[in-house]
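Just scan this pair:

***
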Amino acid sequence: MKIAMIGTGYVGLVSGACFSDFGHDVVCVDKDAGKIEALNAGRMPIYEPGLDSLVAKNVAAGRLSFTTDLAPAVAGADAVFIAVGTPSRRGDGHADLSYVFGAAEELAATLDHDCVIVTKSTVPVGTGDEVERILREGAPGRSHSVASNPEFLREGAAIGDFKRPDRIVIGAEDAHGESVLREVYRPLFLNEAPILVTRRRTAEMIKYAANAFLATKITFINEIADLCEAVGAEVQDVARGIGLDNRIGAKFLHAGPGYGGSCFPKDTLALLKTAQDNEVPLRLVEATVQANDLRKRAMGRKIIAAMGGNARGKTVALLGLTFKPNTDDMRDSPSLAIVQTLLDAGARVTAYDPEGMEIAAPMMPEVEMKASAYAAAEGADAVAIITEWDAFRALDLARLGGSMADKLLVDLRNIYRRDEVLRHGFRHIAIGTRAE
């Protein structure tokens, strides 16, 4: 099939590359000429493991191409996916749908044949209706099908998630839209990926409900971790104990400094705005958003408390800046609030991240970026693990502590065993466990 993908951000680029790897003919379109130029030169605008080789393979095979010109990209397309950004709108927190609607207007003026238009972007309920209205009014002689096909990709594992999905959700209002999307995903038949076909509004709601539930699960275990610290319990054992219950499951029960990234923060906020507009209170989601926001600065205060309550003039080395490992994404990363809390307290902050420092540096200009974890720790009064990169799981603790001013390790991801840290002479502070 011929597919056009509008947008070469995280979702559009990964989806386009994977669709082409299925054997489809895919053209990715973006107005950012610099991004298209980079992609045509083989340079990826994001860090995602395996993406560069996947793109190169399919470009070489002639199945994947990039352009700024919409008209030839959509000519003869069986399906056009809209995968543009939907950031939180400045001022009110609603999802900014201007890019989605702008793409629909351009498609109405450009498409010369009936086509299936698919919203891949995360959009509030009812967005597909508005896209359909724009297409109908902009191209009154056409009979376009408008469908919803939300993505469920984890940054750092997106290619695997796309090719081995838990489920494929198709929100269609007509048989043609459903049949085209079933054909698009037919290569996954052998993987027995379940396909759930719903109405369009239901598919849009599924995406927001899924992210809100996962965000709530993360926030729940983080609050349980705080209680564990107060009563002398161990949160990792608690998480295992409840995660073994099949009704609960073990995923997303890892206590940490709070969630961030491109999805959970903006999607929970957009869901709340939709609920408010419809006068339906979502108290659990409200509490989740508030608790997560408060937790990030609280983690900065936790580091300060571990240093005796006074960070002025002291050096804190942060290991990891991105919101999660295997990505360079700094959007709503807990490190942003943690850094500001430490700077407000008068601390000097050094940092190392395997992939995120180029993006992080202009966001935190007062932080000294270092070439390695060991360079960041040199002369530090405390080292705090913010992101659980694999590179931090087997640090040479003797070397790390050997150059520190004070051997204090604050493990905000619980990736080290207490006995191992203590054996190397560190004081150890973890999440949801008693201090040692």
Notes: The chain is about 45% helix and 15% strand. The mean pLDDT is 96. The two ends are 60 Å apart (CA to CA).
